[in-house]
Amino acid sequence: MRPFNQTFTILLVDDREENLISLQEILEAPDRKFLKAHSGNEALKMALKNEDIGLIMLDVQMPDLDGFEVASILKSNPRTRDISIIFVTAISTELNNVLKGYAHGAVDYLQKPLHIAVTQSKVKVFQDLYFYQQQLKETIELKDKINKQLERFMFMVAHDLKSPLAGVVGLLQLMKDDDRITSSDELLDYMKLMLEASNHLINMIGSILEYSRQNQKDQSIEEFDVHELVAEMARLLFPPSHIHIGFDNRLPSIRTKKLKLQQVFQNLLTNSIKYIDKPVGEISIGHREEGDFYNFYVKDNGAGIPKEARQKIFNLFETAGHASKRDTSTGVGLNIMKMHVEEQGGKINVESTPGEGSTFYFQWLKRMS
């Protein structure tokens, strides 16, 4: 990842040397670097050679290429089109001239003779914006890097689990036909349930492997019944007998990336089951419509989450740190879930009262195209 540059580079463009010197003196600051071009052609060459330029102060009236032409060329090139341009001009800033400048890619105007305080203030605004954009870019690159690491981790874990689990299924198939099993209806039912759960896990692992191999853009979008998906998932999580999982309303059918939505619900249900500390556990699932989104929720009467932990639990490797029981969480699941929700424009949040329980809400697009 390219390191964030803490120096703001400004390209000054004017065919008169005294104007360049004067402008640099006005804008001089410890965290700024200046490049100077005496013509439009020279400015274009410098802009292509120096990828750290954050702002161009561009004179409009120049002999070879005027400022409008230079700005138009810069905006047409993918390497330079995002550089902010301020026109410095002695031309009247009547509406026609201003509109012409904006049409060619200017973001602001400065009228000659320059007002020192106004010039300094405007440049400071663009400098702050540039640093913010660089920090945002760095954050996105870091997020992408972490995502790739997590996908590699998922692939390795899924790959290592698939073979021994397939062996378990093979043994269960052999045991299912054993006379000692077939002679007992109760044992036979348990065996069928174990086989069903094991096959479900194999299918899930296969999906994870496929997910890890593909790009996010290549993930298949399909229409399916969310209620059936979650009901089946809740059954195969084998909650203890004192925990009841129910629905407040029927969940909708949806067109989306199935594996990702499945991962979100599975993570929430698993956590709810894990942290219920009451003699009778209640988990309820429901939804309501909010414009282009469904707002799903999973509510439990478990241990709850302390106020200071409610935001950090969505960070990578952060956990709620429940003191009441041995917490083996890695802090990865909720972070992956948050990324799945946010990448399609949704939001996730939690409401919780320690000792009474928690409700996780997340938005999911009704239909992906």
From TrEMBL:
Listed EC numbers: 2.7.13.3
Catalysed reactions, semicolon-separated: ATP + protein L-histidine = ADP + protein N-phospho-L-histidine
Gene Ontology molecular function, alphabetical: histidine phosphotransfer kinase activity; phosphorelay sensor kinase activity
Record keywords, A-Z: Kinase, Phosphoprotein, Transferase
Domain Histidine kinase: 156-368
Residues with 4-aspartylphosphate modification: 59
Gene3D superfamilies per UniProt: 1.10.287.130, 3.40.50.2300, Histidine kinase-like ATPase, C-terminal domain (3.30.565.10)
InterPro entries xrefs: CheY-like_superfamily, HATPase_C_sf, HATPase_dom, His_kinase_dom, HisK_dim/P_dom, HisK_dim/P_sf, Sig_transdc_His_kin-like_C, Sig_transdc_resp-reg_receiver
Gene Ontology CC, one term: plasma membrane
Domain Response regulatory: 9-127
One Pfam match: HisKA
Protein name: histidine kinase
Origin species: Mucilaginibacter celer
